Amino acid sequence: MTPRRTRTAPLYLALGLLALTACKKEGVEIKPPLDPIVAVARPEDPGVVTLASALPQRLVAADKAAEVRVRLRIDASKLEHSKRPPINVVLVMDSSGSMEGKAIEDARGAALALVDGLAEGDRLAVVSFDSLSHVLVPSTKIDATTQQTIRTQIETMAARGTTDLAAGLAAGLAEAQRGYLQEGVNRLVLLSDGVPNDDSQIHNLAAQAASMRVAVTALGLGLEYNETLLTALAQSTGGKFHFIEDSTQVATVFREEVLRLERVVAQNMQLTLMAGPGVTVEGVLGHSSSPVGRGLTLALGDLAEGSHRDLIVRLRVAPHRDGAALELMDAVLNFQDAVVGAGGLERRVYVAARTSADAARVAESRDPEVERQSARALADAATIDAIALARSGQLAAGVALIDRAEPEARAAAKLLGDSELKAQADGLAKLRKALPTLVPAPHPIAAIAGGPAGGQPSRSPQPTAMITTPMTPDDSPATVKRSHGKAMRRLQGE
């Protein structure tokens, strides 16, 4: 059958022509139809970042509870053609009276050198703090015109007053927000040589920086700053901590920090660890974390090309029968791609092991490299934690921690033939003697009245009888700072 023709299309065409003719007679402008919306495909994952796991022992002893350590390695391959994203950096500089002299001169020089290291289009802000905070350079785009103005303002920085670190940090975060780069790297670099007037707001400011995705690089200068406070500030925001014993080293650290920013391939890394059945995630050695479900999460900041980060995870495993398969944990790494703009990416690894009742087989399953790295990280984490305990007034707990960690490090050093691990054990022994200098002094009113203000009963003093070898006051602060600085450098993979 021949299909019946329809006259609908010719009818619509005729009506359209009539309408067009009428519009022309009335002088109405006829605009062409808009182009259809073209969807822009997001670039593919460049595959630069990888996540892998390894165990010190592939087999776990059966029928008893055990601690299992897992090494997670985050790798970034080298790029053939590296083009860094723009940088938004805020310098927050201690300009209190303790910085007077060479320290403030070196700090100014380091800031000026950093200006020279930034490229056109980058952003810089400079804040100093003493008894008040001072925005010397509001967030400014770097170009030939602004560079000289920035340098002139930095030259005005002078040492005076007390140490209102919280005010300086708050002002620095405000400038970081003003110059925030959605497609760039946002960093706050804090330099301080002393103890803050009031540290009660530092935790909230650190949380604010983390929510803004502004990593804080904390630099402790000299021997008087609070290393525990600065480390917590850096780690909770995904930044790094550096110990600078001499102010002449500040410029070098600034240059290294900018160089590291220039080669970033992954930004705002966040690692989530979820425990398997019968497993508890106890923590990541040397890193602060937050609980989430049956596991925890931690911020790791940025990753540069050609570099890697090693993390040692401590797991507590319940007893299992011989030959059982252990589902230890899932590790998920989330980050923003900084290579081709592929957006949020994810890496995932599943970690498993088996149990054995054969002690010989368990021993044969050892991986000496991972075992050595795990033992070193354990000694470094003990160093960091013992110092933090002593600073909080828990001297006995800090000493007890070292008393456990030192012989473990020596035993592992002997088993693995590791001279570096032996040196770490020696460092723990030396730190043990210096810990009492970190215990907060009692409040003068409480000391006079025989108890704390307000009439509340005082705590019993913590025992220090185990500290037998005296040290000079000059040795103890240096021992604490050097021990802490070395441990943090290794745990940060430097």
Description of the molecule:
With 494 residues, the protein is α/β, with parallel strands linked by helices. The chain folds into three domains: 49-80 and 265-364, Immunoglobulin-like (Sandwich), CATH 2.60.40.3670; 87-262, von Willebrand factor, type A domain (Rossmann fold); 368-451 and 461-491. 37% of the residues lie in helices and 26% in strands. It has helices spanning 8-26, 102-117, 144-154, 165-178, 202-212, 227-236, 250-262, 359-364, 368-391, 395-416, 419-434, 444-449, 475-491, and strands at residues 49-54, 59-61, 66-76, 87-94, 123-129, 133-141, 185-192, 215-221, 241-244, 264-275, 279-284, 290-292, 295-304, 308-317, 325-337, 344-356. Strands 2-16-15-10-13-12 form a six-stranded mixed β-sheet. It has a six-stranded mixed β-sheet with strand order 6-5-4-7-8-9, sandwiched between helices. Strands 1-3-14-11 form a four-stranded antiparallel β-sheet, with helices on one face. Helix 4 runs parallel beside helix 5, helix 9 packs parallel to helix 11 and helix 11 (419-434) packs across helix 13 (475-491). The protein is globular. Residues 1-20 and 443-473 have low confidence and may be disordered.
